[in-house]
């Protein structure tokens, strides 16, 4: 079931200018719990809520999903802005025209216990990166996978028992960024597509999720949870949005009340000057 607001809670969508760390409120609602902002090439923001997808203008304008089941907060816009790829409640990824229309299932049937959670599209628009969740006995296994955006055979990029999530292409398409518990609690990593070489990017006391590389490669925005946090829960204090700069410096931008839904998917503006996020104040 889609998440809903608690009594007295709001969803608030912000855009932060990374050069000045200025935060601008774009839209708020005390009726719809919306999540996971994406950008269209024209600067319009897209969010999900109540199992639906919306453009953000002066209101939430529903994007017709053409018969696709209720969606979650894993959706990505194609580089040309013509298609939005969404993860649905049936465990599959669908392609939908951004102007609305019939949805096309992209992913393959890998059995009833396998779920596809979309997080990235390659810069040339040809390949999707997703997290494949499967159960082996009573063990929950997640790995990074890719699949052609047009449909076709899946490729398993990681193949291990570590908890992985948030797989997203870098701006050159050569690496996929993700968070993983392979070093203990969740930290940020990237893996080269060509040879599967893995590099750890963060190593601190906090629990770091959802690396989002800027289109120009200047920084990685991510969500940082308090030490000891399990998973990426909703509605907690001391959630921090951070930038990892090219020289390794970590810049703190804001501490907020949120978590799940705050910044699950690619949320940089096309010019790399800002990114969008959601808070859920009570």
From TrEMBL:
What InterPro entries would the database entry show?
A: 6-blade_b-propeller_TolB-like (IPR011042), WD40 (IPR011659)
Q: Where is the signal peptide?
A: none
Q: Which family does it belong to?
A: Belongs to the TolB family.
The name this protein carries in UniProt is: Biopolymer transporter Tol
Which species is this record about? Kribbella soli
What is the taxonomic lineage of the source species? Bacteria, Bacillati, Actinomycetota, Actinomycetes, Propionibacteriales
